[in-house]
Amino acid sequence: MRRHILLAVTMAAAASPLAAQSIAITGGRVFPVSGPVIENGTVLIRDGRIVAVGAGVAIPADARRIDAAGRWVTPGLVNAATSVGVREIGAVGSTVETSPRSTQQQQRGISASFNVWEGFNPASVLIPAARKSGITTAAILPQGGLIAGRGAVMHFVAGGGLTEMLMRSPVAMVAELGAGGSTRGEQWSRLREVLDDARSYSLRRAQYERAATRPFAATRLDLEALVPVVEGRLPLLLSVDRASDIEAALLLARDYRLRLIIGGGAEAWMVAGKLAAAKVPVLTGAMNNIPGSFSTLGQRQENAGLLRRAGVPVVIIGNAGGGDEEAFNVRNVRFEAGNAVAYGMTWDDALRAITLTPAEIFGVSDRVGSLQAGRDADVVIWSGDPFEFASQPEHVFLRGVETTTPSRQDLLEQRYRTLPPNYSTPRP
């Protein structure tokens, strides 16, 4: 009996990858993000947490050592605007969970109670590819309608289900100006009406339940979801591009005392001073400078650098359009950051824009986004500058566990590396 108990305990310990595990990453060029670069630094990990970062860290005798000499060591990257796990195949509607399919909700354009993370697929084949590319955390955001719903932050832990991957929810209410065929004036009016009703509903819940209030412009569930927004507890992430629309958004935030985040912001550089004064963050990219509409005529690749120099908190996301960078190519966020550096952003600011700044904006900086004692051990060891095309992540740790799950690309490469014996090269 005792033998069986000991065997069970041993098996349980082996099944837990975090059990009494110490890892020392030594000799690398360490970028904590929350502090200056550390040459010949050490990152010490124990039981899934970072316990020390520095140049003279004492290493336990039982620690697994990883020599990072000549390598660059950063926190796991954070992609702040994705549809990974809620969009598998764009052409197959049943695999797209980014917005409600209800015709009635689509017509209203108000889906504030829609929780995008409830459709998240932890087994998505797109997650291992993102994870192996150094993306360890991502915000998934809903799409469609004037108010699309609520987003969440996901942690790409290997083998985890929804409970293990869901880091925080909700993190923002997502809205978009330009959805539908109505004019800007109509959309701003509609948005103000719904916010007014949410505020009124929050003060008159009892009367509402007795049908003793005037009719409201949204359903009870949508109004309930908007209450934290009008109370300033949940940010409103508003996707707008035109400079005048950004100014209108700033006025809206001032009038309703909202915690505003600007998404897209193609022409944000034109109103950088006003954004900085209001301390409003901007989620934008640096890969594309070709206008896709009249709202983006002023789009330029210097946008992120100009905003940051003005004092605006900047988060770098994809801006190439087409949605590929939101689902299939979330790994490209590091190249967006590299492009931002090429067009005037400092290297340190660019790294912060894909690590600590998005973690701060979405309220998870106590766990991810930097290399500090007490944070989750999400660490990437790069062969060189992570913004360079030739650099590759050589080791990726999530909560102190190294990623070994092969991506779909890895499996295809293994499958076709050795050709069948009867294979013949086609003649030209």
Keywords:
15 helices; disordered N terminus; 428 residues; 16 strands; TIM Barrel
Structural summary, described in words:
The protein is of the alpha/beta class. The protein folds into two domains: 2-74 and 387-405, Urease, subunit C, domain 1; 77-368, Metal-dependent hydrolases (TIM Barrel). The chain is built from 15 helices and 16 strands. It has helices at residues 2-15, 103-108, 126-132, 162-165, 184-203, 205-209, 220-230, 243-256, 272-278, 303-309, 324-327, 333-342, 347-352, 356-361, 408-417, and strands at residues 22-30, 38-46, 49-54, 64-67, 72-75, 77-82, 135-140, 147-155, 166-176, 236-240, 260-264, 282-284, 314-316, 379-382, 393-398, 401-402. The strands form two sheets. Strands 1, 2, 3, 4, 5, 14, 15 and 16 form an eight-stranded mixed beta sheet that branches. It has an eight-stranded mixed beta sheet with strand order 6-7-8-9-10-11-12-13. The relative contact order is 0.15.
